[in-house]
Specification:
The chain is globular and about 45 Å long. Helix content is 37%, strand content 14%. It is of the alpha+beta class. Strands 1-3-2 form a three-stranded mixed β-sheet. It has a two-stranded antiparallel sheet with strand order 4-5.
Length: 139
């Protein structure tokens, strides 16, 4: 399903955000091992936000056009309290203190962030490898 299709289904109450989150968490846990794409997994926070999104729908409230839609973001994008290293070993213990503008706009549109995906060091190469997270394989 596309993000638009998921958003429409949530808005129509044909599916709950939590159901979509669980479906994608299951898929990541089953298939991502050898691929190594989702390197920062924020599943508990995603479940909590999905539950909040579902409660809002029950009240007739919608946060934005992508209310409750699960997504991932690149590891280099700052997400408050989540690792943001750009694959740089010296930033191994850094967590962002605020959200990047693009991430905040996604959150304001209602998304649920499942995790962060791998990038090359400094986001400066065509393949995703860095010393912190290793290589992402293209399935």
């Amino acid at each position: 399903r596309t993000a638009v299709e998921m958003a429409q289904a949530i808005r129509a109450r044909a599916v709950k955000s939590r159901e979509l989150v669980e479906e994608l968490v299951d898929r990541i846990e089953r298939l991502d091992g050898p691929v190594n794409a989702v390197v920062v997994r924020l599943f508990d926070a995603a479940r909590q936000r999905a539950d909040e999104a579902d409660a809002a729908v029950a009240r007739g409230e919608f946060w934005g056009p992508f209310h409750g839609v699960p997504v991932t973001i690149k590891e280099s994008f700052m997400l408050k309290d989540a690792p943001t290293t750009c694959g740089i070993p010296s930033l191994r213990d850094y967590s962002a203190s605020n959200n990047a503008l693009n991430v905040q706009r996604l959150l304001d549109a209602g998304v649920v962030i499942l995790g962060k995906t791998n990038i090359p060091i400094f986001a400066a190469d065509h393949q995703s490898f860095n010393e912190l997270y290793g290589r992402t394989s293209n399935p």
